[in-house]
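=== How it folds ===
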Amino acid sequence: MILAPLFGYLGDRYNRKMLMSIGILIWCGLTLAGSFTTQSNFWALVLCRALVGIGEASYSTIAPTIIADLFVGDKRTIMISIFYIAIPVGSGLGYMLGSGVMKLSGDWHWSMRVTPCVGFLVLLFLIFFVPDPPRGASEDHTDSPSSRTSWREDLKCLCTNRSFVLSSFGTATVSFTTGALGFWAPIFLLRARDINGFTEHTSSSSYDSLIFGAITCVTGVLGIGIGAMTSKYLKKIPHADPLICAVGMLSSSPCLFIAIVLAKHCIALTYFFIFLAEIFLALNWAIVADILLYIIIPTRRSMAEAVQITICHVLGDASSSYIIGAISDTIQRSQPTSSYWRFVSLEYAFLLCPFIAVVGGALFLWTASYLEEDRKKASQQIQDPADVTCAQRTQDSIVKQTAEVLNKPIRAAGPKEDHFVIGCNINQ
């Protein structure tokens, strides 16, 4: 959260391939280092896990912008979708591989040593095979020092882009819901099995982690793929992208509610409705990324990614797990200590997620009302590389310049020259 804006700033100005390589190296190195900590060095593990965020901050803010500079139009949507499939697939594989390796080795330390090996291999592929195209290359935009603005002006422009702000808060609701599910769902299902008498799986949550991981993998691929294809099919309809996101969030809400209330009655149906809810949530990932890329000019995209990631973490997955846990603890303290109330308290806390999903749907519907206007502004700025200010010039500054020119004395011998001067000053 803290470093994403910094890497966003660097990603708009310096070698993106080098920044991503450093990020992956830090990411993998700290994950591997964390696997060697012992019980007496618990805070060293916490520190390693926290610093892994340096790698994520660098990679997640920059990688989508390189894809945007390699592809445009429908092809960009498809490629961004393939990229964002890595989020649910990676999360799902984390649950599956982590629980599987821990079972085989009998030691949780080995479950953290799988990812760095894959990461170092990916680093080699990045160094030798991934290009670093000029910013805006796919849109014929000139990437030059004169087309770049200060960090403060970039941030100001992003904050005044209503489509960006609303879609970012909408994405935070997606992150809130998926973050809460990722952290609490296996524990919630374990407690549901406990009160239903399924004692063969109550000794650990690895069984539910394995199933939940598989569901996350499959729903991520299906949801992102369906979202991308729907977006491509409805491309001619104005505001289609945020409307698809809104439908996804509003559809996930009842599925989440049913999954939560059915857990104490039927685990199989709970899994089924979690499956549906995660498909609807996954509709948004690639589409939101695509929205960002066509409403923000190339030289601000890394910064935009960074701001969006920060919002999503602060209001989403970084806070959702804590909020759900705090609500559950508060309810539990007022009731007798029992396995039943341990489950019910978490069940009541989980009911916050369907409500958050409805809020997300409303935010995406609101985004639709501004999308076309912001998209046209970005397109105009891309077509005119000389115009590097936010939304061109404000109306007040244009009026002021025009007034200054018109107040000059007009030479009787050359009225055409004065008209030419007016034109140059307005369009400069």
Summary: Residues 262 and 270 are 6 Å apart (CA to CA).
